[in-house]
Amino acid sequence: MTESQVPSGLPECEPEMSVDNRGTGCANGIARVQRALEDLDDGDVLEILSTDRRAKEEYPRLAEQTPHELLGIESERKRLVRTEYTTYLRVRERTEGGDSGES
């Protein structure tokens, strides 16, 4: 997904959970986001707050590699040199086929 394909703006829904990754790098932030996604139900929305400029690359990549849906990313300049990113993901459950562990 290229940056031009990333939905911009905010979805018209209230998130069920928010993860505040401001001040942390995307690598640590992705792990926190993945844990939060595991705690949510199908259709729930996760809001991710970040100050890492890679958010516009990493969170869309996460959505591409998982069944979750990227709803939008908004960036807002805070203070003189800081930009904050707000990303919204809708939780989508994996299909049950093949996940049962049966041989």
Q: Which labels suit this protein?
A:
103 residues; alpha+beta; Translation Initiation Factor IF3; 2 helices; globular
How large is the count of helical segments?
2
**Broad CATH class:** Alpha Beta
Mean pLDDT: 83
Number of strands: 4
Q: What fraction of the residues are assigned to beta strands by DSSP? A: 25-35%
User: How is the biggest beta sheet arranged?
Assistant: 4 strands, mixed
How big is the Rg? Answer: 14 Å
What helical percentage do the residues reach? 10-25%
* Overall tally of domains: 1
What low-confidence regions span 5 or more consecutive residues with pLDDT below 50?
97-103
Please list the strands of the largest sheet in the order they lie side by side: 1-2-4-3
What characteristic shape results from the CA principal axes? globular
The CATH topology assignment is Translation Initiation Factor IF3
State the end-to-end distance: 35 Å
Structural class assignment? alpha+beta
H/E element sequence: EHEHEE
The CATH homologous superfamily is termed TusA-like domain
CATH architecture: 2-Layer Sandwich
Keywords: Transferase
Protein name: Sulfurtransferase TusA family protein
Domain UPF0033: 18-76
Organism: Halovenus carboxidivorans
